[in-house]
Amino acid sequence: MTSRTDPHRPPAPAHAAEIVREYGPFPDAECIHGVTHDGHRVWAATGARLLAFDPGSGEPTAALDCACDAGTAFDGTHLYQIAEARIDKIEPASGKVVASIPAPGHGSHSGLTWAEGSLWVGQYRDRRIHQVDPATGAVLRTIECDRFVTGVTWVDGELWHGTWEGGESEVRRIDPGSGAVIERLTMPSGTGVSGLESDGDGLFYCGGGASGKVRAVRRPKPGAA
Q1: Which H or E run contains 47?
Q2: CB count in 10 Å sphere of residue 64
Q3: pTM of the model
Q4: pLDDT by residue (tens digit) across 71-86?
Q5: Strand runs (DSSP E) across 71-224, as ranges?
Q6: What distance in Å separates the CA atoms of residue 186 and residue 163, rounded to the nearest whole number?
């Protein structure tokens, strides 16, 4: 099943993103490709290592050597990491890959998150978000977006994605049924989103691409749009 946006729908309201804190750049981390939150720590995909840090102190607390060139997710027990054309399921304590499934899009992925028993995979230039069976990699449904997708996350039944296109970047809430944009948080000029994850409360963690930084952005209160 594929959901498409209505091109005649009026633009969604936009607000300046409120960046409440920046983390990094971290040693040997030249780029942030994906982020997730395990309830205590933030994990950042840096290309050859998954780096965990304490969001309170900002200090690194763990590092796993693994291929990680796009989105990262956490299901409450395991990490999931996009590595080229596959998604690896990883034990956070040991870094052991316990399973792998094919990723849709054959390597053109950007974001990854876990919600409702499924993985949700952003496809960057294809402007799509796929709901994926975490056991088989089968695509269960597809949501069409109208901008590049550079990160995806769910919180309290809200679907948000990052976009970074034409030098402009936003964090957007979309209708999970139609893909219509409901709300937009505009990032400052020169600041992009490369990976997105909610902390389950009032913050989004946003990868900062080649800046090597992770930024915490305040989530608008529900109903504020």
Answers
A1: strand 47-53
A2: 20
A3: 0.92
A4: 999 999 999 999 989 9
A5: 72-74, 79-83, 86-90, 97-102, 109-115, 118-123, 128-132, 139-144, 151-155, 158-165, 168-174, 181-186, 196-198, 203-207, 214-218
A6: 10
